[in-house]
Specification:
The protein is an alpha/beta fold and 594 residues long. It is 42% helix and 14% strand. α5 crosses α9 and α17 packs across α18.
Length: 594
């Protein structure tokens, strides 16, 4: 067999290979960005299945975002085209949804229960509390508690509040009852209900453990209490659990994730073996050095070793740009991209890759622009439009929050004939026809129909499964990794990804670290980790920019440089001004200086 002869571990270095060859028992892979953690995870699973006789349907791989799950699945499919389809590769919410659908009856739901969107949740909460404002409060309280682990030792369920006897918890229990009456679960339920069901029925938990004896979790540093509780129910202390992560990339503390679970893995799983990876294959030496300096003041990994081993000769310095305001910053980014790609975009709308004139063969799809808050994307998009630079944006909207997608979901309910993909297409066409000349609605619908078709294909002909897929696309993951467009991403959305060229904009005190105007300085460690995540997405070229003045909440405000910039040594950076960025067709050597 050629696959065996070639060997699935050949593409790994000795440390990665040691991790992948650890067949049974708990395993922790602790390593910095770009060290091949995700690569090791996928090769390890493929090795187990193809070379160690593990059944693919016994493999469960979990991550946090839809995009990351898709990427895991793609990489596994690349390694094992036939077997990958039989593995369960999903997000934590997807896993919860799968278990809940199978056990719906026990939770007061039917198999085709719906997932409540924000609007539905608010209607129910407002009705219960007597006003929309009170309803919002209830939902905010529920969302805050979503990551809090139900305490299974004492049998009390502190997470949901049932049984604690306070008014708040009674209201929340009422809210849950009303959801059930409508055959709905919300996002919080998707994790909490499976935890409750498995916790209450040890045989059921054991059945799921038998089903998936091989569990892997990527980005383990971002796990919250409820997800951890679910994972503990699905594994035993000496089970085959592989956890992978980097404490210095923990960026979801604000919504209940707790890096403490990562740090105490060895206590939770005493049989665990721990592997460290130190070679960074992603970024050039300058970028790695800057990232290590940037995280050092509050690193959670003492004595972190991270060295660049990629094949990058003569790496350019990191470009620093100071702009007058956010519009000037955006136009700097647009011009710099234009120069990097050989100056095609300002002259034509052709988005073809520029490979013929020595500019490293970079295309638009090799570039990403990262920012702290979604609001920063507006200035960038308009600058890109003006410059004719094609882009795609990833936002955090719920897919179902888009009017086009909502209309589509409603319309679909009436289309019972034909396979689902066909019905989606028919529904989009019908809606577009009805929208008539309202171009904005038509555009929104068409985008929705693109977004939606692959989900429909994946869901087969199961309408409820399809709608669940829709709501689980918590981020509008319209980002096509193969499209030749510049990617606009929040720092949170960029985790796990890599791009040859990265612009990190808004490096200002108050934006990164983020603070509401006028607010006190807060714990900045998580913001610094976010900065670290941003720097380490870059493979070859990195630019950091800031504006002296920025309009925030409709007010123009002065902004000082981000304190995080000060940690990066001057020997690694170089100022880049508008002039050098707009210099016509620089030579390759000049380009390196930009
Ligand atoms: P992050 O912390 O950002 O998620 P990671 O540790 O998961 O990073 P990967 O995305 O798995 O890193 O790998 C980073 C890059 O390095 C990828 O392009 C990957 O293919 C490459 N890489 C990893 N290991 C090797 C190796 N042994 N040989 C060649 N390339 C490698
Ligand atoms: Mg990774």
């Amino acid at each position: 067999q050629p696959r065996r002869a070639q060997g699935l571990l050949d593409g790994l270095d000795p440390d990665q290979r040691a991790a992948a060859e650890r067949v049974a028992g708990p395993l922790l892979i602790v390593a910095g960005p770009g060290t091949g953690k995700t690569r090791t995870l996928t090769h390890r699973i493929a090795h187990l299945v193809a070379e160690r006789g593990v059944a693919p349907q016994g493999c469960l791989a979990i991550t946090f975002t839809r995009r990351a799950a898709d990427e895991l699945r793609e990489r596994l499919t690349g390694l094992l085209p036939d077997e990958a389809a039989r593995m369960t590769v999903t997000t934590f919410h997807g896993l919860g949804s799968l278990i809940l659908r199978e056990q719906a009856g026990r939770a007061g739901l039917t198999r085709d229960f719906g997932i409540a969107d924000e609007a539905q949740r608010l209607v129910i909460a407002a009705e219960l509390c007597g006003s929309e404002a009170q309803g919002r409060k209830l939902l905010a309280q529920r969302d805050r508690g979503a990551g809090t682990a139900p305490d299974s030792d004492t049998g009390t369920d502190t997470g949901t509040g049932t049984g604690t006897g306070t008014d708040d918890s009674a209201a929340e229990a009422d809210y849950e009852r009303r959801l059930r009456e409508r055959n709905l679960a919300d996002f919080t339920d998707l994790l909490r209900l499976p935890v409750r069901l498995l916790d209450a029925d040890p045989d059921l938990a054991a059945a799921y453990r038998d089903r998936w004896p091989w569990v892997s979790v990527d980005e383990y540093q971002d796990i919250d209490g409820t997800q951890y509780a679910l994972l503990r129910l699905l594994t035993t202390a000496d089970g085959n659990l592989t956890a992978i992560g980097d404490p210095d990339q923990a960026i979801y503390g604000f919504r209940g994730a707790d890096v403490g679970f990562f740090l105490r893995f060895a206590q939770d799983f005493p049989a665990a073996r721990s592997v460290r990876l130190t070679r960074n294959y992603r970024s050039n030496a300058t970028i790695v050095a800057a990232a290590v300096q940037a995280i050092a003041p509050t690193s959670l990994v003492p004595g972190r070793a991270l060295r660049a081993v990629g094949d990058f000769s003569d790496p350019p310095r990191i470009g620093l740009h100071v702009a007058a305001d956010e519009r000037a910053e955006a136009s700097f980014v647009a011009r710099a991209i234009d120069r990097l790609l050989g100056g095609t975009s300002l002259h034509s709308l052709d988005s073809g890759r520029v490979t013929d004139d020595g500019h490293d063969g970079l295309g638009f799809g090799d570039v990403s622009v990262l920012y702290r808050t979604d609001a920063q994307s507006a200035a960038l998009m308009s600058a890109f439009d003006n410059a004719g630079i094609p882009f795609q944006k990833r936002s955090h909207d719920r897919l179902l929050a888009r009017p086009g997608v909502r209309a589509l979901a409603a319309e679909l309910a009436h289309q019972s004939q034909g396979p689902l993909t066909e019905r989606v297409r028919a529904a989009v066409a019908a809606l577009c026809e009805r929208a008539g000349t309202d171009t904005e609605t038509v555009t929104d619908l068409r985008t929705a129909g693109e977004l939606v078709a692959p989900l429909a294909a994946r869901a087969g002909d199961d309408l409820s499964g399809f709608l669940a897929e829709l709501s689980l696309g918590a981020e509008v993951d319209a980002l096509d990794p193969r499209a030749d467009r510049v990617a606009l991403l929040t720092l949170h959305a960029a985790k796990g990804l890599e791009y040859p060229v990265v612009f990190l904009v808004g490096c200002e005190d108050g934006m990164l670290p983020f603070r509401f105007p006028g607010a006190e300085r807060d714990d900045e460690a998580e913001e610094r980790r976010l900065f670290f995540v941003g720097l380490t997405r870059a493979q070859q070229r990195l630019y950091l920019s800031r504006a002296r003045e920025r309009t925030r909440y409709k007010t123009v405000r002065e902004a000082a440089a981000s304190p995080f910039l000060a940690a990066i040594g001057p020997e690694l950076t170089m100022p880049v001004d508008e002039e050098s960025a707009t210099r016509k067709r620089p030579s390759d050597r000049q380009l390196r200086l930009i």
